[in-house]
Amino acid sequence: MSRNCFLLLLAGCVSDYEVVPEPVELHPGDVTPCDFTRVENTAFWAYDCNPVFTTTDEAWAGTIGSTAFAVTEVVGHPFYQLWYAGLPSESIDGQYGLGYAVSPEGIGWEVHTANPLLSEPPNSEAWDASNMDQLVAVWDDRAEQYVILYQGYNLDPFINSWGLGVLTSEDGQRWSRLSPEPVFDLSMPVGDVSSWCWPLGLSLRSEGGYTGYIAGQTGQAMSLEDIKCEVYTLEAEDVSSWQPRPQRLLAAGSAGAWDDQGFGSLAVASLDGTDYLFYQGFGGWIQEDGGYISSQNHFFGMAVGSGSGWEKQGPPIPLNNTASGDIGSVAAHTVGDRIHLWVSDVYDGSQGVGYFLFDPIRAAEEDGQ
After folding, report:
1. 44, 50 contact by CB (below 8 A)
2. Which helix (H) or strand (E) covers residue 352, if one does?
3. How is the chain split into domains, by residue range?
4. Measured torsion, CA atoms of residues 116, 117, 123, 125, in degrees rounded to the nearest 10
5. CA dihedral 192, 196, 202, 203 (to 10 degrees)
6. By CB neighbour count within 10 A (0-12 exposed, 13-18 middle, 19+ buried), where does 255 fall?
7. How far is CA 146 from CA 153, 164, 175, 183, 204, in A?
8. Distance (Å, rounded) from C-alpha 339 to C-alpha 356?
9. In sequence order, what are the beta bridge partners of 286?
């Protein structure tokens, strides 16, 4: 419908149809270019034309790193937004930027012509001058702003900073750093947590404020195998004050399990009164040049909410493309009567984002239950 006709309708013109703000419930495969195929005997369906987002041919973003998603409603229909950290090469140090893309259905993405919307600080001594990654995003309808929580660091040996930063935006396009300092120092021990790993996820609290999920290490590690990045929470009444809770929310798997070193990303979504936690778990470390370590053997798992916390659902769910496991960031949003997921992974040697559906009702119907 054109804008002029809409204005005329408001002014009282007569029409033989009406605008209905409620979305029509359809299976995404009925309206997308490709269908979805069930992943073995699970309740997950993979989009047949994955990946839906890869490199963008933008000179500043030759490499796409961390991604963050948000789904909001416009006249009752979902509107998908994606933010991504980009680097001009495989380097992890400097020259990064924040990109933005939008999609009407979560599959075809149009990048913003003004990308990057935010670049690395001009001051090389800034605490986050080296990189911005592990992005997690949320739309706060109370404060009427988008919030991105990220891990930033400066690898200069004379600075060696590492913390959590906050970005805010009213429209998802014009972003500003909350402060010139991190909102939380990841090197600061709290209770039994000797150090922190990275942010994992972000959600709104029903009573207002935010819950951030963060990976933390308990005790002193004598070897790489002793480092376990387990799930804790950060609570915030507003974006400027983040307080960690020392009680562990979810433990790494037992020795020898596929996720025995911890978690790299997670997303929480609810469906039909049940809470689900989707996560990237990993089972190994690599010692990198420059004095830092990186995780490896990343696979996809799920936990279900219970009265006592979260219950993991057994072995990894086979959404991974590579045998070694290269699952990256995980985003999940409830749209209609299913949960939509975007999971980064390696596709034909390059990092990309895959699109999946979690639909336990359809799975039960197909299984005759």
Report:
1. no
2. strand 350-358
3. 30-366
4. -90
5. 10
6. exposed
7. 22, 16, 9, 17, 11
8. 9
9. 294
Judged by DSSP in three states, 58 sits in: coil
Tokens for 37? 């195929």
- Spatial separation of the C-alpha atoms in residues 176 and 181, rounded to whole Å: 13
Distance CA 302, CA 320 (A): 14
- At residue 235, the pLDDT reads 94
Query: Quick check: 261 and 284 in contact, CB under 8 A?
Result: yes
119 backbone φψ class: left, alpha, beta (φ>0; ψ -120 to 50): beta
Give the pTM. Answer: 0.87
- 317 phi and psi angles, rounded to 5 deg: -85, 130
Which residue do the tokens 């089972």 mark?
283
Which residues have a Cβ under 8 Å from the Cβ of 52 and sit 6 or more positions away? 106, 107, 108, 109, 342, 352, 353, 354, 355
- Residue-level pLDDT at 331: 94
On whether the CB atoms of residues 164 and 241 are closer than 8 A, the answer is no
Contact 82, 119 (CB under 8 A): no
Confidence of residue 62 (pLDDT cuts 50, 70, 90): confident
Is residue 249 left, alpha or beta, with left meaning phi > 0 and alpha meaning psi from -120 to 50? alpha
Give pLDDT tens digits for 300-353: 999 999 878 999 999 999 999 999 999 999 999 998 899 999 999 999 988 899
Terminal-to-terminal C-alpha distance of the chain? 43
Compute and round to an integer the Cα radius of gyration of the chain: 21
CATH number 2.115.10.20 given to 30-366: yes
Angle at 169 between CA 167 and CA 173, to 5 degrees: 105
Residues written for the chain:
369
Quickly tell me which residue has 């972000």 as its tokens: 202
